[in-house]
Amino acid sequence: MFEMKWENGGIMRQPETDIPACVDVIRRSFATVAAKFGLTEQNCPSHTSFITAEKLQNHSDWGWLMFGLYEGGQLVGYVSLSDEGDGVYGLHNLSVLPEYRHSGNGKRLIDFCKAKVKELGGRKITLDHIEENTVLKNWYAANEFVPTGTKIFAHLPFTSGYMEWEIQI
User: Fold this and answer.
1) Would you write out the chain's pLDDT as a tens digit for each of its 169 residues?
2) CA nearest 107: which of 39, 34, 9?
3) Is there a contact between 157 and 44 (Cβ–Cβ < 8 Å)?
4) pTM of the model
5) Dihedral (C-alpha) 93, 97, 101, 107: value to the nearest 10 degrees?
6) From CA 112, how far away is CA 116, in angstroms rounded?
7) 6-125 in CATH: which number?
8) Phi and psi of 21, rounded to 5°?
9) CB–CB of 12/70 below 8 Å?
């Protein structure tokens, strides 16, 4: 049985039983990105705004660490970390509900992930994003992530951008 454990400042490890609530937060959060960039289930079915409970369950089954951010007992944010090996962790699905943005919640989740990776003995966090989303890219840069490259995939209507953060020793 999963024991609910508060990690830090309203951030909690998410049990599998909360997957439907996590999916709702992720989809609602990423819907603003989909709208801004004209992404639909037809032209970009793999975009995070269309994530399913089955896909999130797969992430859990693969060992991804799933965390929720709570305010007033309500799930308002989500993020997951995957162990990619050799001290590298992938950051996925960083989500904050639109009505809870611009108050430091995204930074709380980023800072939590940095601390969690350090605690786990990791050395680096990697992520991918829509390269054309300069507001988000600049936000990650302001949170110490540096660009590492881009890639164009024929099946995506945007350029994939890649960034990373390394622990400074």
Assistant:
1) 334 444 455 899 998 889 999 999 999 999 999 999 999 999 989 899 999 999 999 999 999 999 999 998 899 999 999 999 999 999 999 999 999 999 999 999 999 999 999 999 999 999 999 999 999 999 999 999 999 999 998 888 788 999 999 998 7
2) 9
3) yes
4) 0.90
5) -30
6) 6
7) 3.40.630.30
8) -65, -40
9) yes
